[in-house]
Amino acid sequence: MIAVDGYSACGKSSTAKEVASRLGYVYIDTGAMYRAVTLFFLQNFINLTNPKDVKSALDQVNVSFIPNPNTGINEVYLNGFNVEEAIRGMEVSGKVSEVSAIPEVRKAMVYLQRKLGKNKAVVMDGRDIGTFVFPEAELKVFMTADFDVRAARRQQELLERGEMIGFEEVKKNLQHRDTIDTTRKESPLKKADNAHVIDTTQLTMEEQIEQIVQLAKSIIDQ
Length: 222
Ligand code: DC
Hints:
Blueprint: E1 2-6, H1 12-23, E2 26-29, H2 30-43, H3 51-59, E3 63-67, E4 74-78, E5 81-82, H4 90-100, H5 103-117, E6 122-126, H6 129-133, E7 139-144, H7 147-160, H8 167-183, E8 196-199, H9 205-220
Parallel strand pairs: 1-6, 1-7, 2-6, 7-8
Antiparallel strand pairs: 3-4, 4-5
Helix pairs in contact: 1-9, 2-4, 2-5, 4-8, 7-8
């Protein structure tokens, strides 16, 4: 089990995806799970402050992963529909931290994550994988990068999706998410004591991928 945790927009998902593919492991994007739930809540106008509404909404949510037939990489499905694209826009990004801070939501997703990871040979990325979901993971990585670099990367990502968002707005969204992610009551974003820290500010994608692959190989070969 390889746990890749860290801040938003420091290249976690792209890195974890490629690490999984080089090792022949399954990739699970837990952020995508919280995003899919958020999309459902937005589509159905769920009142986040009403626990009854949240609970009955969760009963109607089915999040699953199916590999893309061309790439072999897992994509996220919400109630049978592929939502890999729909969950990446600013609307979901603006709400996902609030939704993922709700204890009932976390309980449901963590249950699913543990089920998905039980056969191992998995790279799972998120915020609390090494600290809470799989504290016994054989390899834990904590990714970080300078705030402005992360914001620039996120802005570029949005631009590639056709969303032109000003730098200040992207920074505001990131700051907002960092604050909620690190201060929420339930398993906040935090480095696990035995995690390897990778600061990606000065690294290329290839360098960060290789660092993790090498760490993994040294453990697998033991
Ligand atoms: O990795 P991401 O940016 O797609 O994650 C979206 C949000 O989901 C993030 O702001 C915090 C939340 N999240 C979480 O609380 N726990 C996880 N394991 C993964 C993501």
